[in-house]
Amino acid sequence: MMKTVKIKKYSGELQDFDMNKLINSLRRSQADENLVQHVARNIVDQVEEGMTTKKIYQMAFNMLKSRSRISASKYNLKKSLMELGSTGFPFEKLVGKLMEFEGFNTQVGVIVQGDCVSHEIDVIAEKENNHYMIECKYHNSQGRFCNVKTPLYVQSRFVDVKQRWKSQVGHDTKLHRGGLYTNTRFTTDAIQYGTCVDLMLVSWDYPPQNSLKARIDKAGLYPLTALATLTKTEKRQLLDKGIVLCKEVYENPILLEQLGINESRQRKILDDSLKLCSAINTLI
């Protein structure tokens, strides 16, 4: 039985190192069980009193990457989302694509007239009689939470837009609903309020069975920042061109040639992109 070791979270708070928690996070990468156990044992042997969760995460990622780039990319998904840049637009595009995968027709970054004022809406999604107005709250650093102020703000905008929509021809039978996506986590009161007013809430780990990470896994819509075969500079250059998904990289290989990437690396990048966007993961 291993001794209790205190490790430091991003917040600075100390907590007991939990090997089972580490194993569960590794399994979500869809790595082979032998590899999961191998990485976990190595981490246990190296973890020290006061070591940061960031350090442990990086150790696990590097071990996975040395044996399976695809598993490493999946393990690194949360961080990859935070590497989409300082603006929220790439995340909005990703959310729009996730909604399209679920059968919605979407528009990203549109101006919508409300009953009182006009609003710039991140994603408008329509499917049959369902008409959604979705706002995206993006954070590019660890330790950030989406508190109750955000769903309060989203709901007030939605109410204004909904009043205008209801006055339009053909909208009297439609289900109008507001929604909020975030790449981090909701606070308890944010979930309580959002549930009370029937906002569609999606965060990194909420709802438990259909969270953001679960939706990305199911759709195979990984951000290009998840690719372990691209450098930070190359990722930034692609994002600057409006490219966000691994799927887009695979479908447009000329993009890699334009970046001056040699043929050998191009093949690795395209192979990883294909595997990421074709693999369906049902694990939560």
UniProtKB/TrEMBL annotation:
Gene3D superfamilies membership: 3.40.1350.10
Molecular function GO labels: endonuclease activity; hydrolase activity
Protein keywords: ATP-binding, Endonuclease, Hydrolase, Nuclease, Nucleotide-binding
InterPro entries from the UniProt entry: ATP-cone_dom, Restrct_endonuc-II-like, Restrct_endonuc_IV_Mrr, tRNA_endonuc-like_dom_sf
UniProt EC number: 3.1.21.-
Ranges of residues in domain ATP-cone: 5-86
Coiled-coil regions listed: none
Signal sequence segment: none
Protein's recorded name: Restriction endonuclease
